[in-house]
Design goal:
The protein is mainly beta. It has three helices and 23 strands. It has helices at about 5-10, 15-30, 345-350, and strands at about 35, 40-45, 65-75, 75-85, 90-95, 105-110, 125-135, 140-150, 160-165, 170-175, 185-190, 195-205, 210-215, 220-230, 235-240, 245-250, 260-265, 275, 280, 290-300, 305-310, 320-330, 335-340. Bound molecules: beta-D-galactopyranose (GAL).
Amino acid sequence: MNNSTPYTRFRAGSLQGLISMLAVIMTCSSVIAQKDSTGTTNPVTYDSFSPGALWYDTNGELINAHGGGIIYANKKYYWFGEKRGRSAQAGVNVYSSQDLYNWKPEGLALAANETDTTSDIARGCLMERPKVIYNEKTKKYLMWFHLELRRQGYSAARAGVAISDKPEGPYTFLKSFRPNGNMSRDMGLFVDDDGSAYHIYSSDENYALRLAKLTDDYTAPTTRDSLLFRNHREAPALFKYRNKYYLITSGCTGWTPNKATLHVANSLWGPWQLSAENPMKGPAAETTYGGQSTFVLPVRGKKDAFIFIADKWNPRDLKDSRYLWLPVQLDTETPYVNWLDKWELKFFNAAKK
Ligand code: GAL
């Protein structure tokens, strides 16, 4: 029997181990962020998506934008998401990209308030699932997010709203509230073709999914606020395809992945019908490939091209949660998602409809 502990085994081969570890670190860093003779960083350039793999920004740092959403503005995509650290959450990060593969960090779009402990967004609060929309009338960008107040766990269940003149921010916090008095946790925003915007949110301890039409300036909910269905769903991701509204949601198991469902409706107000018990196909489809929906992105300039975006949460180290980006496939009556190890946007050119 070999009674050496991993520690003594490590010590025995420590020099060799150290050398190979250094070699690995040096190889990785030279791939991730090479410096040329002028000292400029030349990070890896992506030309495809690898769902679930480590994904570095153009500075060679891991992308830190969880539970996120994306808008297209000024000829760029902007990706907003939770900036996660080991314990605290510092706010909402934003990245920009022209090709959806390579993302430039633009810093914090909305920072927690570091000085005023009475602020709704005082350091220690949680700002989850941020989504941004643009208001054509006011020319403002509006960020909505799920807000939990500092030191109150998940009991506040509020929506927060922030505003900016520029897509990348910085955003100014406006207010937080329970929409029409309802609890509000996981959420999404949706702007319809007529410019009306909606807040879709998990309410009533996540047993109810509700929809509220926003005011014309998108800064508040109107009282047009109704129950979509009551079956304990969260992580709503809404998209419109051929005049129908589709809604992907997850079950409610915290950070642990579960099965997604797809609902469909002719009107946002319903009735919403179950369209697929599970719109995911392929390996690990029963747990949404280990992820949870956050957003469906319509690809600019491509007809009927949508990317399903999910978070593969790592609750032990939330910033190391991975991103799952997969194409929504539309070659059958019911949209679905299939697993792909690696894919490119040209997938949509070849896709049958
Ligand atoms: C999930 C939710 C996440 C986060 C998490 C906390 O159900 O989708 O956004 O709030 O719970 O446990």
